[in-house]
Write a structure and sequence with these properties.
Blueprint lengths: L10 E9 L15 E10 L2 E15 L6 E15 L10 E3 L9 H12 L27 H4 L4 H12 L1
Parallel strand pairs: 4-5
Antiparallel strand pairs: 1-2, 2-3, 3-4
The structure holds zinc ion (2 copies).
One zinc ion binds next to helix 2.
Length: 164
């Protein structure tokens, strides 16, 4: 997504774009779907406030049961740019060297998407995961190892023997 500062009119400017994992340099496994972006760029003097609304669907692998699942992503974020390299600004203001420049929006969008991925990826909050002994998916069915937690070591040894 590109916005040329020189083409902005004072006040609100609306933009709509569709990007993908390639244009935003995202991992294709997690972001196979199109990414819809609606942006509002508000120009007031030398300050430009850009609000992004971002929609896509991420494909994640559950940390517990290893199944693939989809997660809707619906994000709002605001970035402030100052087209004025000579003045001092707060840390969260992105200084742009000149009006002739394009805004570095793809980098902002990329960071928004990467930061939204949860550290712990769960297909659902109460995912039962895989049995550590026999590997069956405990969301689908309970296995025998689970029925006798006190004997889990014994069962595991028995299963190992049966397998070999
Ligand atoms: Zn799961
Ligand atoms: Zn089991």
């Amino acid at each position: 997504m590109e916005i040329a500062i020189a083409e902005l009119k004072p006040g609100a400017n609306h933009f709509e774009a569709e990007e993908d994992w390639q244009s935003l340099e995202l991992p294709p496994v997690e972001f196979p779907a199109a990414i819809t972006i609606r942006s509002l760029a508000d120009l007031e003097g030398r300050l430009l406030t850009v609000r992004h609304h971002l929609l896509t669907t991420a494909q994640l692998t559950c940390d517990r049961c290893l199944r693939q699942f989809s997660q809707s992503i619906d994000l709002d974020e605001r970035f402030i740019f100052a087209i004025d390299p000579r003045s001092e600004y707060d840390d969260d203001v992105i200084v742009v060297q000149s009006e002739e420049q394009l805004l570095p929006l793809n980098q902002n969008l990329r960071e928004m998407l990467l930061l939204t991925l949860p550290l712990q990826k769960l297909c659902r909050d109460d995912c039962q995961g895989l049995c550590p002994l026999c590997g069956s998916d405990l969301n689908q069915a309970k296995c025998d190892c689970r029925l006798a937690p006190d004997n889990s070591l014994k069962v595991a040894l028995k299963q190992l023997k049966e397998r070999s």
